[in-house]
């Protein structure tokens, strides 16, 4: 059998305002090649996520040269260069520097969607003043993504301090009772801070899409 | 010992744009009485959630008459009548009629926040045409809350059809493998439809607060 | 101690209508060799599942040449060539191209049982029209296997659209809240679409056997 | 707010071959009344599941007299009397007499679908001869539903003995490590007996619908 | 059979510095009566925990009059009046007023151990200033018990602000993803704030014993 | 439908050396009546387990008078009086007096099997000397059942001290992290004390049957 | 720091009738060397479990030559040769040939304890006649160890057929719903076959120790 | 994107009495380099935890020579040599020699905090006399850390024997029902021994910090 059957969803932008991305984990090299060939034929670009460097190394030179790959976020822009970032700016906050890969996936995805971001890292609640120093700035963002692993306390604290749309991105940072990100996920869901929303563990792409849905609503309103 | 110690967070509106509510489950009658006394003294209103009819029946007449209680949503407006609902309108969608209590909690909370809602119920995916008939209308809302229990498939389907901010509200409807709402919760988190966000199981109040954060961002932009 | 003790169940076809297969995972090379020797001696064929290419590489040339191995599905036909595929045709549907290995295991197993299949891939509900375009065709199959990972929403949608026997095959595609296939498994079990049945996560062989039991019932009836 | 909004799926029979049923758990009396009113108005009948006797007692006499309620299975036939049972006959097997409520739900649902059933109870594997005495008879059914709780060993044993379509119905019988039916569910899924399929814990209605899908396939073939 | 066999551990004070208490849940009235009879005979007092008012109501007058029962904490002092509270003072902090029963169990147990306590309630992190206002005072306690349910974020924040021995008491306050206190338990264990320790969910008695072990160490040192 | 179908396994004694018992939980009054009628007709006795007093109260006088019911263990001897207890004596040990119902179920079941028991209660490891005082006596039993809930530490300690057959009976005593008996179950399974075996949580009947299998082996050997 | 601190429990045989073994997983090469040096100095032998071939390869020649290592069971006899196997014979039964490593650990451990074993493999219930052919023989063993993974149905079937002491050894064979052996573990615990006992997943050593405790009781009785 | 953003919490000592440490797992080489550069610039030392030897090997010579790395505990002292150890002495107790890495992390962390430790290893309860021989010595420590994996019975036994502050450190030693340390964690939490506190699985650093909080309280009192 062959696994090269692919059915792209090229009408998604019309329906929801942004394109499909390709989640590379779990796809064979042959499937990725097929997808890239189709995109080249159609003159379309695509965001690729969870794309590891060794997979890139196995690509043909023709595909590799159309690829802007970033190792930290494991994302690539294929066959299209995104335009300049537009307002409003999305705040991307992280508890610790171990959450940088997930933060980077958010930032890169929003770059692909031509949306501005500003990053605030290492403001975990165990050193509360680092966070409090940033509150005034954080209150200005209409939309924030908050990445946190381990105990996931940062979103609860932030949720009581800022008025913007809050998208919690639990990360798999930690061990033992951190349970691979489940504790951070459950803590964000069970938070008594009002109006937090949550995406899947380590799903930086999904957090960025959720942020972009809010950005779209803001743009249409300001339009 | 007495349990009447209470410390209200009356400055929350200034910080995040809307007031604290009182979650009545787990509070004693004495604590609720104390809270209501304080609010009367301060001339403040309060939204009360998860307030059962039998607790209301045990209240003093003075408190009861200041209370607008709704049995289906288990919410009450205390000591303040909300003003008229404002735009933009939040869409509140539910897979089945068993999800009505949670839907009602969303609608009542947004009424308290003086925000308009429109409800679309019984559009579960097992009868897909009921949903497809509503898609054009659903595409017009800048913000939607989607309640679903059991397999939680509705948010995934909707996520590929509409561009608005999508807040999934998993409900505890179902039995066995529905796992008290966990399957709907996990399905919404693991969805391949892009940009879904999720709140806690049966947390209609939280979904409404999340929707209101997005409404605020839209209002400020259109302002 | 030696681990070469083997007791084949060669009478299974008489009892249930199809033979035993060998699940290769967890068996030593010595055990597989012993099984293949026995089959050659008895002049019998066997389907082998979860057989990785590196295990094949370590086999004797004599065994390897009796083997029709397929890397994608990790299956092999040993010492027998299946005859041509017979009616009725089983539909094999998959949400995404990442589910191809499981789809391939279904298709190969049904080939071994000399039963026709038709494959429909990449019809996940996030791009609903891809699925709706296929509904008329899908309604014609008396038996369908539906592979889906992540949120597992496809079986619920399909269950409300088609009348055939529906066998859901949850896959381990996804991460975090997908919980290695458990969310897709639970979603299929908790679905409000009526009459779905489910097999173990990634158990393409089992899904094919279940489909074949239904095919046998149909054949006997049409007999 | 009112919870009486109801949207019936009256076209389901055309799509999948049998009607929607009403799951009464989680619905208010007002919702059930509304549904029954609609059905009377439309001249349609409906199967009601998980309907407890005390809910029936609170119905109006007009609704009660249109109702054929069975306490053991918690099912009711509303506003329609099913016709005589047709071939082929579905075998309904149970490990213990504690599984009778679930067995009864299967039998009543298939009665509603005008399909014949034959019941074999108390054939748990701890008294293996009780089962072996029935094997010849069990081998004649084209479709079997097998209810089992606790360790759920019966489906595995049966799966190696009979050729029919096998639908396992795990029940919540047992305590401790039976985990409310999860162990029986997992055992059926993990079984090495080939081609078992599984429905949700205690979902007798779903098992009957799955059986009916197979019955339909057989009828069309013998047609 | 009779269940009145009882074997008290009257030497515990010599070994660990404080007496055994009686956990009343799961004990029959006959067992509690037997224990109280033994204590009266031996001229000994006992702390009773998880003792509900209705059990007290069924006691003989002779036992009831030797009992100082507190309904909120569900504790009783039997056959002994504790002496005046001694230094050092243990701080008992709670995120919300729903945690008062657990706080009360801590305070009452420490009273029994003749140790001073000071209570600070309703300082959850969603209203951070309520907590920050108390930090200077909280920094003075050599030992603190911190009760928190839901997301359990309070211990993490406090752990970065105060130098004392920190004993986290997760409570079962909350629903859904709060998982009956497990999320607060896991969050405290996974916290990046250094040196938190944790006791069982709702185990106010255990938290007080742990605090008393630290108090003993301090007393011996200051001795 | 009726649920009175019953199929007793009267040949079990011949196969395994002791009779079937009736687990009353989950059986209807009608089913229990049917079973008792059959036994009276056959002139056979039966052990009944998990039989609550209120069920006994609803029985006919004719059945009640043939019943020796014990409320603590929730067991009854029906239609037969067991003979005198025989050697060897089984030791039944429990960590706390809250485990008495389970201990009683073990003792009553072994009485039914006409086997001697000796009970040692309240020897939990938190008061280690209570246990050490009994070690010499405990070393004399060829077979011991050890009941323990909460942390389940008693079996591990005992396993390093005595040579007899050790059957651990985890109990659901405790709360929170005791997880309804799962922690005691897992602790007994994971114990580093060699040769512990375990039965289901609260399964006093099963522990007694396991003990009786060992007793039978000893009797045959000494025979 | 050094990790060479070791405290052997050389008096265990006097207390429980058999020696300590060394679980090699999780121990460093340095720790194993230290233990072997001590044993050589003391002139004592030791059973080593979970000892992989590559660890053996890194040992000194002096240690290796005192070692009788078996790769399948991952066991070694160090510095002592066990004497001939004695009666009674323990039956060791396994559902499938994938369970051979665990079976081998049981057999080797009982060899070390100088106890006879007889092995019956590949008698899983999906091919029931393979098992029924062996029943008469299996009924003669006073003690049986039954290894089973996946659905773990074999112990339930066997428990209703044979009178001996039954020690279930769940194995991690299988995938998905087999949950790494948990389903087999739970099934054995929840079995309705009376008097099964269970040890930890893959704990062949523990099953052998449990069998040996029963063997000791039999030997003392036959004395 | 770059991941070199780092925000150190250099004021932690003033707030809680000891510095931040760097958890190296999950940090990139670039992040560690950046942190070490900052510390060198600031003339500050740092404790590094979970630092594997291969990461050290990739460091620059300049960083490596400032590093005192210990392979067993996976800790390093960077850019500062701790002073001599002070009283009071913390007892560090472990059930088995497989827990040495965690014990070593506790000891090294307390060395960094210039606090004395004394280690007692291999006193698991399966060989109880090894523990009882040490009780008098263990009773003298004001603070003890108790490491235990598998069934985690040691803390319960110790909790009834010694008066000091008891910090349980569950370890991931074991397999199957040991559940990667969860059983030891739950057993310590559910223990009936009074006043145990618990830290995360394998969190030797956290246990040491908790011990140091108690040590600080003792030092302040002894003034």
Automatic annotation (TrEMBL), chains A, B, C, D, E, F, G, H:
* Domain PurE as annotated: residue spans: 88-220
Q: Which domain of life is it from?
A: Bacteria
Show the Pfam families listed in the entry: AIRC
A biological process term (GO) from this entry: 'de novo' IMP biosynthetic process
Q: Name one GO molecular function term.
A: hydrolase activity
Q: What SMART domains would the database entry show?
A: AIRC (SM01001)
Cross-referenced Gene3D superfamilies = 3.40.50.1970
Q: Which InterPro entries match?
A: P2CMN_synthase_LarB, PurE_dom
Would you tell me the protein name for this molecule?
Answer: PurE domain-containing protein
């Amino acid at each position: 059998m062959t696994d090269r059957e692919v059915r792209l969803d090229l009408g998604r932008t019309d329906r929801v305002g942004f394109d499909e991305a390709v989640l590379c984990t779990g796809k064979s090299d042959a499937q990725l090649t097929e997808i890239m060939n189709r995109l080249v034929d159609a003159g379309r670009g695509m965001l690729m996520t969870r794309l590891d460097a060794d997979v890139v190394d196995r690509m043909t030179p023709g595909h590799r040269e159309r690829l802007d790959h970033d190792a930290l976020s494991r994302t690539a822009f294929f066959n299209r260069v995104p335009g300049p970032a537009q307002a409003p700016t999305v705040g991307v906050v992280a508890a610790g520097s171990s959450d940088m890969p997930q933060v980077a996936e958010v930032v890169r995805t929003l770059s692909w969607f031509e949306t501005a971001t500003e990053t605030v890292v290492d403001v975990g609640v165990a050193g509360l003043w680092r966070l409090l120093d940033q509150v005034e700035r954080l209150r200005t963002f209409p939309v924030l993504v908050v990445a946190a692993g381990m105990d996931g306390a940062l979103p609860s604290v932030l949720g009581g301090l800022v008025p913007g749309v809050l998208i919690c991105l639990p990360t798999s940072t930690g061990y033992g009772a951190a349970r691979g990100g489940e504790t951070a996920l459950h803590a964000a869901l069970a938070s008594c801070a009002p109006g937090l929303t949550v995406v899947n563990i380590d799903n930086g792409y999904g957090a960025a899409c959720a942020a972009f849905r809010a950005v779209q609503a803001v743009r249409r309103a300001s339009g």
